[in-house]
DNA sequence: GCGGATCAC
DNA sequence: TATGGTGATCCGC
């Protein structure tokens, strides 16, 4: 717990401790600051103000640092300075930061903290001038560098590294670059971070601020070590070590609070450990679990982003709060005029107008209208803005803002500013291909200087393991697979056996085997080609396998290949009973057999083994009569793909095949993968290939109840929700495959925990699961010993919900059986 | 499409 | 005395 931020540890006599302000947050140059004193002063100054009251209610105040400062008068060197005025300062130099002064702090508070603080007015032309100077330097290293803002940039130094040939050249390149910035700008210092991607590079650039640099080696273990202990947002205690503030882009005050206090995720390593929890609670998005897991793995962007055109344009002003309507209307007219002016300058017309208000008590409100036609005229804007404002009166307002969005794309570039179009062309022409990797620098200035935050990226793929990991994540982002599982997969890769490698080699020439329906594929040149009759039935052995079981189909053709190889090797008399594909290959040496079997198990567990498709019905029922045995072994699932089940179950239960066939009619591509007892069901849009939902979990014994199907996740993407209004659509199908899988594994019960995070998420989860057919069993609150088992297994508190698998299948049978016929 | 929130800079 | 402005995105409804 950093800096007494937890309200639970606050002493009643020290109320400022609970006043969480941005001013004691991570900030370079704040090491050794008496944070309590800062907090107390800020508290005393703020106490009772409307603003403070608002903050108390929101329990938040967040701003980001902008290191941008310059004073040309040498006599000011070493003196505490801040850019801005008494009401607000933009940034402060390191001298001032020693007093606790920082960006986004009101000047009057800053002056209280540091009575000698020198206020310097903002001077944008000056910043732009120096920014341009630094950019000239960056161009020498990477003509396509990404200018993050005036004071930061990302450079790809791959080529420079390569030219200089030496490994470890990043250090000297960074030094040279910073030195170059220093001389070209006449004295500006900056900091740099070098790493494999931009996210890491930014963090690295913070480490040795000011006027320093840090190079993170581009190998997986270095990255993992570095990132795993990295706090999600706050800096480390200055006494702990010399490492300065670090921050992950995209995680602000609010997100930090959720991760830290609700989910007990404090470091990036925790993010990976609690990946399934994140997956359950956040939908997939840049702010969602994929993002968190990527961060946890130290992954970030390395490409040059597309030039994004603006989506809105706005103008807003703060003034002394007033309820005077005439005054407000006149402010509104001014802002409408400003906005109209900006739109004309940019050659934009738009049809959605949004009015933003900040009340005297600092609440933010917005009201929007979409107009019939595109406009940029101040009269139109004012007319509609007035209506919107009128509806809010009477109210005391301290800020009015107007924003226009939904541009008319057709005329967007009819009259663009020269600068804009030039930038556009330059960026477009210079966009590079195949940027696999970056090293990056972050530069920052120190005292008495325009502080810089410039970054540089490079490509130097010395270590393939991390690159491989990164590739995987790109795949994840495309396929929505959880990174941590893919990681496991990656770690297992070296253990792949020779026999498997052999199969894979053969596979390469026939990678389309599993791709499409009745397409004939030659598994082996001189052998009858494998054909999926009617799209699902193997012409060689008659097994039915839905097209969506892509990997299983591959395995299946591997089987036929292996069988063929074996036949060739040992003659026509050899067994045709496929017990294990590796036994068929028969390449293991006797003395390593045991070891290899273990490995086989692990390796096989990624997919459903071929032999399970051939499991005889009596074997199946034998197993199901002996659940105790399964408990120990946690065997792979028995897939029952045939509509006419051999298990002797009632005809009314939908088989896996029923579910899959039915889903096909809904353009849904379902797939199940297993990893030991773990399983994952993914549903993809058959047309676009994008994932629309998934379920994950494990088949495990549960305290005297035999095997249960433990569901970690049922998740639908946002896209799904738009596409399919009914949760019972995709969600039901994904859930059904999981449930049927559980049934086939011998589970009687399915269970899950609707994690309690916030009221909002929790009630949503419970509602969703109830609609699917689960019932609330108990609240796991951690208050009783009996909760311990649940808490250990689920890793949290919430509502335990169970469902009888048989009942679920019965309940759902109509849906699936109906659509079959 | 609207309104609230969060985030970066 | 006094706590910014611009733009983006996401989520729920």
From TrEMBL:
User: Which residues are in the UmuC domain?
Assistant: 70-234
Give the primary localization class: nucleus
**Does Metal-binding appear among the keywords?**
yes
Pfam families per record: IMS (PF00817), IMS_C (PF11799), zf_UBZ (PF18439)
Q: Which UniProt keywords apply?
A: DNA damage, DNA repair, Metal-binding, Nucleus, Transferase, Zinc, Zinc-finger
Instruction: Name the chain's protein.
Output: DNA polymerase kappa
Does the record carry Cell division as a key word?
A: no
Q: Which residues form the signal peptide?
A: none
Lineage, top-rank taxon, reads Eukaryota
Task: Return the CDD domains for the record.
Answer: PolY_Pol_IV_kappa (cd03586)
State where the protein is found. Nucleus
Q: Where is the composition biased (Low complexity)?
A: 570-579
> Top-down, what is the taxonomic lineage of the species of origin?
Eukaryota, Viridiplantae, Streptophyta, Embryophyta, Tracheophyta
Q: Which residues form the UBZ3-type domain?
A: 531-568
- Regions of biased composition (Basic and acidic residues) lie at 485-495, 621-631
**Organism encoding this protein:** Brassica napus
* Residue ranges, annotated region (Disordered): 477-500, 563-652
